[in-house]
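Bug #77: duplicate submission created two jobs. Keeping one. Sequence:
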Amino acid sequence: MSSDNSDEKFVMDPDHGEIPDLRNSKGHGFYCFKHDGVYLYIVHPSVLKGVRPADHLRSIKEAELKDDDIFICAYPKCGTHWLWEVIEMLKSGTIKYQKDVKETRMLELISKDGIEAVPQPRVFNTHLHLRMLPKQVVEKKIKCFQIMRNPKDACVSFFNHCRDMTPPYDYEGDFVEFTEAFLSEKMAFGSYSTYLLSWKAEVAAAPELPVLDLFYEDMKFDPVKTVKDVARFLGLSSTDQFCEEVADACSFKKMKKVDQEMKGDAPIKIWADGKEGTFYRKGEIGDWKNWFTVAESERFDQIWNAKMKDSGFKFTYTPV
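Kept job's structure:
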């Protein structure tokens, strides 16, 4: 996290409550506050508009939803952008890219009023835990997607994302330091393992909630099948040919080009000046091998496996 910045002064405002010190021994870490047991970024003042961060999040729980709303839920860097575009095409029945970025439909960035102002049909996305979402998600049995990715590739992708963000949300430590934060709770959105375990427990407590679990790796291996699975879950009568067209239009290469050439602005400035920040970096399965040493990989496995023992989650770490 960089210093001497007006936004940094905002996130350190004592009116936000106690700001935990998440820095490591080298002074690198994240500016967050803790809400409902999870560390979260303090949203930019242009979004909060004078509202306290905790009140901003609490307002989300009271948002009025429509029966045909759709929610994409995921830990950061697990494929939310890809899935959002796929669902929008399937819902519209046209091969047409969204000019808006998915952050314009991200619960954390638009709050209660923003949620209710989005015109139908509506596909929202979030990195929040199920318990933090609008209460009507469970009450109205809103269709939800949970998209997951192997933790090593997610860690690498999240590191590169945070490294290029605008201050004070950027991360100045190296990859090893970031991995330590990723395996602990001391970072924005908490640890991936805690997110997954919480999601599983909270969904189990709401057995009538319709949820489709997807894996990033399956989307890469067989995108057409994934598109068909999504259409079927949504009750859409999409033809095989149209599903193939959607899968092709939403290939990583094409999505990266669309992001660079036609996407509009996010509700807040995400990327730092002089950085080549992008939501689409490589999109590969197994890129983690270019980042972890053998010893680091083994240590990651040891910690991850201990946390996730008997959880039932199984991930693919290398291409087939």
